[in-house]
Write a structure and sequence with these properties.
alpha+beta, 5-stranded mixed β-sheet, elongated, 24% strand, single chain, Alpha-Beta Plaits, 3-stranded mixed β-sheet, 12 strands, CBS-domain, 10 helices
């Protein structure tokens, strides 16, 4: 046993570690000095105490910012401020590592964002729990023309740029528990609360339109399009890339699973892509 939690009326008030006990009692006169003194004389009265709902990453950050002499002390877990358990640093790090391995298995290799399996699980879980949420389907317009002219490396750069823009927008304007996934290619998914969706979409559009033109050569950027000739020698011109976002609210209709919700989002996305420029559209139809 590495440590013992001291509890008063169900609430943790200190931590007695094996190292701390040996430090105080292990000297030549240690036992005599502390004999008869209260337990508070040898416990750590300010241990790290975390709520049971705090994400593992946050717990790890708090633990690693402790003074060196307390860096590897156990962490006390509470629920409604009552003692719920204790966790060691080794178990915490092992759990985080295993979680990261599981996440990596379902992640998109280009962006590192969760892939299709995680997206499906996330949507289904929220539907089953009866959550009110907005699914945002994000897609780049005129990406194929850009990719054909500038090559896959530049195409990947455009996809990573959009991933960064989406992640930043969700972090700035989304809510705790929001989800961002990468379906594949230039298609992404965001899950957020309905009240935050507009702000998220507006920032994505603003930043995408601001940064994307600089992926093009000066000549293409200046004329605002890519021009080329097809196999019949006919000139074709494609506008610079823009972004289309389709919003579907779980409260607007009754969805049984991710397939039904994705079908509505895909239909709405096709409508958005027919509009000029970057745009986001919301499905307002009901059952």
């Amino acid at each position: 046993m590495r440590s013992v939690v001291v509890v008063d009326a169900g609430r943790p008030v200190g931590l007695l570690t094996r190292d701390r006990l040996y430090y105080h009692l292990g000297s030549h006169y240690g036992v005599a000095l502390y004999l008869g003194r209260p337990l508070t004389a040898v416990i750590d009265a300010n241990p790290l105490i975390v709520d049971v709902d705090l994400p593992l990453e946050n717990v790890s950050q708090l633990a690693m910012h402790r003074p060196m002499q307390r860096l590897y002390d156990d962490i006390i877990v509470v629920q409604d401020k009552k003692y719920a358990g204790i966790i060691s640093i080794q178990r915490l790090l092992d759990t985080i590592t295993q979680t990261q391995i599981e996440l990596a298995r379902g992640a998109n290799p280009l962006t590192g964002l969760p892939g299709n399996r995680r997206i499906e699980e996330e949507i289904n879980a929220r539907l089953q729990d009866g959550e009110d949420f907005t699914l945002i389907y994000v897609d780049i317009d005129n990406f194929k023309a850009f990719n054909d002219k500038y090559g896959f490396e530049k195409g990947d750069q455009a996809i990573r740029l959009l991933a960064d823009i989406i992640t930043q927008a969700v972090t700035r304007h989304g809510a705790p528990g929001d989800f961002t996934g990468h379906i594949g290619g230039d298609d992404f998914v965001i899950i957020t609360v309905p009240g935050r969706a507009d702000a998220v979409c507006q920032e994505i559009i603003a930043n995408f339109d601001r940064h994307t033109p600089y992926l093009y050569d000066p000549a293409d950027r200046s004329q605002g399009c890519i021009c080329s000739f097809d196999r019949q020698g006919k000139k074709q011109c494609f506008p610079l890339m823009t972004v289309s976002l389709a919003l579907v609210d779980s409260r607007q209709r009754t969805f049984k699973n991710h397939l039904e919700m994705a079908a509505v989002a895909a239909e709405l996305k096709q409508y958005a892509k027919l509009q000029p420029g970057s745009i986001y559209v919301r499905d307002r139809r009901r059952n």
